[in-house]
Amino acid sequence: MADTWLVVGLGNPGPRYEMTRHNVGQMVVDELAARRSETLRAHKANARVAETWLRPGAAKIVLAKPNSFMNVSGGPVSALASFYGVPAERVVVIHDELDIPFDSLKLKVGGGHGGHNGVRDVAKALGTADFPRVRVGIGRPPGRQDPADWVLDAFGGSERKDLLLVLSDAADAVEQLIAEGLVAAQQKHHAPRP
């Protein structure tokens, strides 16, 4: 299946974490599924998935949300990549990023994990860090708040006003990355929002 892409939103399972900053990757997958009127269903790889298409006649995409906790995301991602025969260069990982301001996106392929344990575990499980990433900015915590607590907090009131737009932009970035490649997606989505 040369034209199949695996699009994975990282996060933590269960209602306690559903609307937290750490789960923004899963929220983007939900947005991509909603655009296609798809429902994610249980998969034996310890994940929920929906098989769909970028658009009719275009690349097949498998939308996925691991059921594991963030720091052990690699097992489900690797199992899904193996099940669907998707090489690492077509495994798009969407995750939160402390070092990018809220309301901003960055896309890249490869490189370090930047202290993100979910990305670290995926790279270890895939045996390579050379997979595309859509990094959704959540910004650093104010004052002396521990970043570990910050990522597990729900988005604040002012952030929630813009969250739907952020999720939509990130979903657009995933679609453009698959359709047109990394450089085209970077050129559009790395620019500051007007």
TrEMBL record:
Gene3D superfamilies: Peptidyl-tRNA hydrolase. Keywords: Cytoplasm, Hydrolase, RNA-binding, tRNA-binding. One of its GO terms (biological process) is protein quality control for misfolded or incompletely synthesized proteins. It holds the Pfam family Pept_tRNA_hydro. TRNA binds at Y17, F69, N71, N117. It catalyses: an N-acyl-L-alpha-aminoacyl-tRNA + H2O = an N-acyl-L-amino acid + a tRNA + H(+). Its main location: cytoplasm. InterPro entries: Pept_tRNA_hydro (IPR001328), Pept_tRNA_hydro_CS (IPR018171), Pept_tRNA_hydro_sf (IPR036416). Transmembrane segments: none annotated. PROSITE patterns: PEPT_TRNA_HYDROL_1 (PS01195), PEPT_TRNA_HYDROL_2 (PS01196). The active site is at H22. The record marks D96 as: Stabilizes the basic form of H active site to accept a proton. It is found in: Cytoplasm. GO terms for cellular component: cytoplasm. The record marks N12 as: Discriminates between blocked and unblocked aminoacyl-tRNA. Its EC number is 3.1.1.29. One of its GO terms (molecular function) is tRNA binding. The keyword Repeat does not apply. Belongs to the PTH family. Hydrolyzes ribosome-free peptidyl-tRNAs (with 1 or more amino acids incorporated), which drop off the ribosome during protein synthesis, or as a result of ribosome stalling. Catalyzes the release of premature peptidyl moieties from peptidyl-tRNA molecules trapped in stalled 50S ribosomal subunits, and thus maintains levels of free tRNAs and 50S ribosomes. Monomer. This is Peptidyl-tRNA hydrolase. The gene is pth.
